[in-house]
């Protein structure tokens, strides 16, 4: 395969760099552009100089060089598909492997690392996000199936510096300890509010036939509806209190008030 060649103009800084380390190649680079072999040779001769790596984000040939953190070249993606969808209100178009999960696409392609990879088998709930307002396990959801949809992650719940009411309640009630499961817990709790508002029954709902309006969530209902989100630290009473406060709109006593 022919070596990929780019023809951007060299900056003064780049010229000085090549004059210092590769004077014999400078005229060729100026005439025909930088190639990957030039990059590899420069890294070797400079001993990985910081100045070299500062150029990575500015130059097209460096941006796709081996070992950089930029997006994978489309040519190297197997079973590549283009997916266009909204993420936290912003339209995104990414090219990815058709087998890539939504979780991996969010974390690796869009650098939204709030959603956590826990079990990667749909059993812990740490990866929960909202797709068109409904909670899904992003580790079991193919990114390609989100074409044209709206995805909301933990990063998209707050309004600028103002926390979402559920986020504020989790902070108030200390609904987290290590915090690893918290993004999934909060996203799940936000969706739970909408489900109850729509009158959607759960396993413990008393009479599923008569529920045609909003359901008033008891502690038992909250625990059942949140049972897919595992907290290994055991902050469950605090999580229930946080959700109950947001659901009722009334203050719930913090559990620390009952200790001692």
TrEMBL record:
Superkingdom of source: Bacteria
Keyword terms of this UniProt record: 2Fe-2S, Iron, Iron-sulfur, Metal-binding, Oxidoreductase
InterPro entries listed in its UniProt record: 2Fe-2S-bd (IPR002888), 2Fe-2S-bd_dom_sf (IPR036884), 2Fe-2S_ferredoxin-like_sf (IPR036010), 2Fe-2S_ferredoxin-type (IPR001041), 2Fe2S_fd_BS (IPR006058), Aldehyde_Oxdr_Iron-Sulfur (IPR052914), Beta-grasp_dom_sf (IPR012675)
GO molecular function: 2 iron, 2 sulfur cluster binding; metal ion binding; oxidoreductase activity, acting on the aldehyde or oxo group of donors
The 2Fe-2S ferredoxin-type domain, residue ranges: 81-157
Protein name (record): Periplasmic aromatic aldehyde oxidoreductase, iron-sulfur subunit YagT
Source organism (scientific name): uncultured Cytophagales bacterium
Organism lineage string: Bacteria, Pseudomonadati, Bacteroidota, Sphingobacteriia, Sphingobacteriales
């Amino acid at each position: 395969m022919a070596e990929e060649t780019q023809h951007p103009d060299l900056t003064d800084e780049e010229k000085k760099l090549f004059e210092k380390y590769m004077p014999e190649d400078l005229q060729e680079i100026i005439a025909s552009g930088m190639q990957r072999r030039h990059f590899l040779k420069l890294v070797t001769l400079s001993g990985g100089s910081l100045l070299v790596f500062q150029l990575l984000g500015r130059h097209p040939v460096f941006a796709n060089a081996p070992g950089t953190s930029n997006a994978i070249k489309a040519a190297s993606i197997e079973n590549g598909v283009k997916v266009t969808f909204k993420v936290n209100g912003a339209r995104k178009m990414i090219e990815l492997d058709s087998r890539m999960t939504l979780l991996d696409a969010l974390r690796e392609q869009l650098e939204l690392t709030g959603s956590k990879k826990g079990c990667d088998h749909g059993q812990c709930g740490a990866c929960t996000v909202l797709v068109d307002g409904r909670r899904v396990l992003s580790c079991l959801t193919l990114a390609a199936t989100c074409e044209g949809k709206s995805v909301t992650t933990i990063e998209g719940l707050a309004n600028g510096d103002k926390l979402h009411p559920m986020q504020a309640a989790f902070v108030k009630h200390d609904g987290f300890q290590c915090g690893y499961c918290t993004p999934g817990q909060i996203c799940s709790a936000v969706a739970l509010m909408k489900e109850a508002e729509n009158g959607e029954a759960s396993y413990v709902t008393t009479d599923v036939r008569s529920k045609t309006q909003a359901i008033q969530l008891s502690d038992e209902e909250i625990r059942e509806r949140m049972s897919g989100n595992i907290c290994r630290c055991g902050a469950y009473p605090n999580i229930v209190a946080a959700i109950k406060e947001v659901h009722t709109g009334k203050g719930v006593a913090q559990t620390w008030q009952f200790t001692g």
